């Protein structure tokens, strides 16, 4: 897999000494950086920002969620701008078009458990002098276009970014752990609890409505768009015409007039009942900017998927070390465990799912001890646990025809007498999992949240079928204390 060996400071210093603009040898301004299978329709010309417009700037008067107009990763980049400490973790502030400019920039991404520094030049793909991918609503602002170029380099090409979800990009920008909720399969109370607790703990949220198989991004009468990634950027209670009402602020990364047109939309009568002071506090504006408010009840009725990006303690510590901002808030409510693993058919560790009981015990096994912490919200003697298995490198390997495998995991409770040792076939024949992800699926990552009493457990990640090789990252977040190791 690609390594990113360019040193930003060293390369910039060399270019300044030699009085030349940097050209990236790892991600050249040519077709291979644009696509691997489908050539763009437009005639592409690679231009530096100064060739596109006078007075280019990296950031114009502070970054905002309106700096990002639809691109493959638009929504996640917009989410980044909601929190300075998250933004500057990804977009280091030691670079500009003015001071020490040498046509070189760098961005930092979380890549399968490690933060990597991706160095690029500032030659951007254009058509007729205009950026063809992600861009800002300020014509001379370039942080979002350059961020997207670095992200394309991370995965090999701009085309490789297509088909990636908002959630994947959000994970790569924050190092957070993503949960997926089918809105209609969760009670209103549960979903509201996830949102309220998530906002308290600094989570980031995305949402969507199922796509219409016959129409790409079909526009609905309500103004919402099917198969389109939105972000949830705020939660607010107001006094409306029917008393206290919970509102969500939603953003469409197209950044245009395509907005919700129901109750609490920009021009609806409900806003007459809200004071000017409250409107100012909510940053409410009537503008065709892709951002709108809607009631939680309407959100529950209209949207079908919600994604929650949980920020764990190691992410928060990393942010604090890099930016000097202690962003922990209440996120330290999580303790976490993460480790790299793999399924290897030659080594006999690719056992497949429990349907293949002869080989299932050959999969990697992780002995896990959970204990309660003080002050849990539920007070029911159980720990909240989020477990995630992420298969590495599959997007990068798509150019070789390798797609994501169907993956999953199962969690088994261990009696104290068994300790945390490796378990054999007889154990799995006699035991039922106490938790697992809902279904084996060919996503980059599978995740599940559940509640378990303190004690000893074994976690078994697997592919659906035996003898399928892949590397993975296992992560476990716990509301109590967690200790784990491969056994």
TrEMBL record:
<dbReference type="InterPro" id="IPR022682">
    <property type="entry name" value="Calpain_domain_III"/>
</dbReference>
<dbReference type="GO" id="GO:0004198">
    <property type="term" value="F:calcium-dependent cysteine-type endopeptidase activity"/>
</dbReference>
<feature type="active site">
    <location>
        <position position="228"/>
    </location>
</feature>
<dbReference type="GO" id="GO:0005737">
    <property type="term" value="C:cytoplasm"/>
</dbReference>
<dbReference type="InterPro" id="IPR038765">
    <property type="entry name" value="Papain-like_cys_pep_sf"/>
</dbReference>
<dbReference type="GO" id="GO:0006508">
    <property type="term" value="P:proteolysis"/>
</dbReference>
<dbReference type="InterPro" id="IPR033883">
    <property type="entry name" value="C2_III"/>
</dbReference>
<dbReference type="InterPro" id="IPR001300">
    <property type="entry name" value="Peptidase_C2_calpain_cat"/>
</dbReference>
<feature type="domain" description="Calpain catalytic">
    <location>
        <begin position="21"/>
        <end position="312"/>
    </location>
</feature>
<feature type="active site">
    <location>
        <position position="252"/>
    </location>
</feature>
<dbReference type="InterPro" id="IPR036213">
    <property type="entry name" value="Calpain_III_sf"/>
</dbReference>
<keyword id="KW-0378">Hydrolase</keyword>
<keyword id="KW-0788">Thiol protease</keyword>
<keyword id="KW-0645">Protease</keyword>
<dbReference type="Pfam" id="PF00648">
    <property type="entry name" value="Peptidase_C2"/>
</dbReference>
<comment type="similarity">
    <text>Belongs to the peptidase C2 family.</text>
</comment>
<protein>
    <submittedName>
        <fullName>Calpain catalytic domain-containing protein</fullName>
    </submittedName>
</protein>
<dbReference type="Pfam" id="PF01067">
    <property type="entry name" value="Calpain_III"/>
</dbReference>
<dbReference type="InterPro" id="IPR022684">
    <property type="entry name" value="Calpain_cysteine_protease"/>
</dbReference>
<dbReference type="InterPro" id="IPR022683">
    <property type="entry name" value="Calpain_III"/>
</dbReference>
